[in-house]
Amino acid sequence: MELDKTISERRSIRRFKPDSVKKELIEAILDAGNKAPSAKNKQHWRFHVFQGEAKNKFTEYCLKEFDKIANSDDVHPSARYSFQIMADAPVTILVYTSNIMPHTARPDIQSVSAAIQNMLLKAYDLGLGSLWICDILYIDKAINQYIKTDIGLLAAVTIGYTDESPKSRAKLTVDDVTTWYE
User: Fold this and answer.
1) pLDDT single digits (tens) 43-89
2) What span, in angstroms and rounded, lies between the C-alpha atoms of 159 and 180?
3) Inter-CA distances, 107 with 98, 112, 138, 149, 150, Å
4) How many alpha carbons fall within 13 Å on the CB side of residue 2?
5) Domain spanning 3-165: which CATH class is it, in words?
6) Predicted TM-score (pTM) of this structure
7) Chain-wide mean pLDDT for the chain?
8) For 70, which DSSP code?
9) Which pLDDT value is given to residue 1?
10) Helix 23-34 to helix 107-125 angle, to the nearest 10 degrees?
């Protein structure tokens, strides 16, 4: 698939078919993430892949933990929906930064974000849908206890076969977001 077409046509998918995703496809998506550029070549990203019964138990735990804080004023009203999407998707990948860089611009987060974008594009290229989810950060400490890690959780990515065809959303033009200096 042509890169420009992949970039233009990829959409955030929130409804997935229940069909399982072959391990080879998940590995190809992870490999694309692993090939992203990274600050000082630290390759900060770490992936935890949940599928099958392990994913079901994990997302059930997440929903219970989220429901403990759901009514807080600091929680976005639609955040629970993200956890339901994780429960419905065949694959949920937690994406971590393993090496927090103390610079104020957090190059580690920028590096991991590049890896996530590569993963989303590769999923689309393989005929799969995906969604980048940050609402999991509401319960990052509980998730880290669940998988027994203390590194920095940054996002979840859901993967599966799409059960929807979202239309393109309006985007600002390049002229709207660019200032030129010549």
Assistant:
1) 989 999 999 999 999 999 999 999 999 999 999 989 999 999 999 99
2) 38
3) 12, 9, 22, 21, 19
4) 4
5) alpha beta
6) 0.92
7) 93
8) T
9) 54
10) 140
